[in-house]
Each structure stands twice: as C-alpha cells, then as structure tokens.
Design the sequence.
DNA sequence: CACTAATAATTAGTACCCTAACTAAAGGAA
DNA sequence: TTCCTTTAGTTAGGGTACTAATTATTAGTG
C-alpha cells in the first residue's frame, strides 16, 4: 500500500466526516434520552426554539433535511406532545409546525446539553468553534447553488 | 433571541457536523451509483482495498461502525459479488471478509471518485486536508477510551 | 475436565436518511 | 375563466445506524 494512496481511508474527508459525525452524535444519546429526544429531534427542537411556528419546508432548509425525513419525525414529536402541525390558513399546502407549552418548557432542560457534550469531548471551546467554522465552510461548498 | 444564545443552531458543532456530513455524503451518490455502491459500502470497500481479508470486528473498529450495521451491509456486498464471508478456521466466531476478483477490480474505477468530489466542492486540497485533520481530532476526542 | 464468563456475528426493533411517486393546493399563462 | 405548471407535504421503498437480545464459539478458572 503506497504512502500516497489516493484511496487511503485516512485521506478521505468523507470518512472522517461520517465517522466523526456518527461518533459525536452518539455521545448525545444518553444526554438526550432523559429529555425524550433523539438527536435529529433535538435539532428540530433547537430550530423551533429559535422560531415557532415554522413550515416543514423552512425547517428542512434550515436543517438540510428532506421533507420525507421530517414528515414522520415531526409526527412523532407531535405524538409526544411537543409540537402541533396545522394547515396554514393563507396556503393550505403548507403546515405551521408550532411548539406546544410542553415543547417550549423543554428548552430549559435542554440548556444543560451542550455543556455536557463539551465536557465529554474535553476539547477547548475555541477549538470546537474552529472545527464548527470549518464544517460551515464545507457545508456551504457542498450545498446546492442557491 | 439573544446574540449569545447557547442553544443557537449555528453554535452547535453537532448540527454543523450532521448537516455537513449528510450533504457531503449526498454528493457521492451520483458518483458511486455507476459503481453500484452506496457511500457506507464505499467506505467498506476502501477498507478492504487497503487490506483483505478482514474480520467484521476489524472493519467495525476501523470504520467506527457497529456489527449490527455491518452485518446486512456486508451481506448485500456479498450478494453483489464483491466479497465473500467465510468462518475463520482458527476461530469460528469470526468471519474472514474477503474481496472477490470483481471486488478487487472495482478499485480502479473508484480511483476517479475523490477527484470528482473535490472538484464539486471547489475547495483547495490544503483546506480539505485541514478540515479532515480537525475531524480526526474530533473523532479521537469523541471515541471511547481505548 | 467442567463450568462460567467473554466474544463474534446475527437478528429484532426503532428511528432516521434519501429518492421516487403521489395528492392536493396554489401560481401563472393564455 | 380555464388549464397547465409548480409547490408542500405525505407515503412507499431501500439502505443505514444504533441498542438489545440471541446463538455459537472461545477463553479462563478451579
């Protein structure tokens, strides 16, 4: 195996990305479980805590997720009582995905989540911010032209 | 929404990670489809092109994937004729996952893959390497202690 | 040697993830 | 106004991804 192998696993950004993503997200599981959330659900709630109500399309664009992924996911959050989905009055193709009081109140418990993960990672916050900025660059480069 | 909101989406490394990972991996789909591979399968093949045969456990550790994920995935690659799975003689709990001649030959077509993705991303190779190194740091921090 | 504990891989179950197809509603053009 | 095109969200289907449970094999202990 030559030292300059173009297909070497440790040369592939996509592998580093996939493995890091899965592994980091895996750390959230025990932290989010007491809140009754999976990681993708947590991301949805983060978006709604920023702004609610929002449409499925808006959530999809914000989270880089397809409607087909969001649809059942939102359904499960609705069943859990954290949000409601109602047809918009001005455009009945669209849904207003809106936090319930329970969904809103969950935010205060979620405030402890990032700190727990940062502590588990044991990296400097400044380094995490640098990594995050790199990822934002990468996401922009990979995203479809607007 | 305060400017220093600890739960702001764009402050979460995990969100940047999830979105970037999904989006970048999504770019591979049309490139890998002519090779008959999904992205996770591509990663498995990369590992086997480095070294074959390998056990499921070895592949799992290398790729940060659970055996439960690998089991059906390898089965599909076996059905596709790219690899075989055989009980090891020295330890019948373990499998030897070994490339077939077809699996081995696929590598030459796969050599074009990274270049296509890099071109699509339009980022300098040096920047991609920097990002990859960051991710490797992150993966190490997130991984269970050895 | 007998028995217990640990290990490797598979299966079951749940929750994503995407593409493709579909239904219903809205927008736009003639 | 009518009709075609586009859009929003859902459903279907295939492929992951994980935890938990299971089966069979191996390792370790007395």
Sequence:
């Amino acid at each position: 195996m030559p030292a300059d192998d173009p297909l070497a696993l440790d040369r592939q950004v996509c592998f580093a990305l996939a493995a890091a993503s899965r592994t980091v997200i895996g750390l959230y599981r025990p932290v989010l479980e007491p809140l009754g959330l999976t990681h993708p659900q947590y991301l949805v709630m983060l978006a709604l805590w920023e702004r609610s109500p929002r449409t499925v399309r808006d959530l999809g664009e914000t989270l880089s997720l397809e409607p087909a992924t969001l649809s059942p996911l939102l359904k499960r959050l609705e069943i859990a009582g954290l949000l409601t989905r109602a047809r918009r009055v001005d455009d009945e193709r669209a849904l207003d995905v809106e936090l319930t009081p329970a969904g809103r109140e969950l935010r205060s418990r979620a405030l402890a989540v990032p700190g727990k993960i940062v502590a588990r990672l044991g990296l400097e916050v400044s380094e995490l911010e640098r990594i995050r900025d790199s990822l934002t660059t990468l996401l922009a480069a990979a995203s479809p032209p607007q």
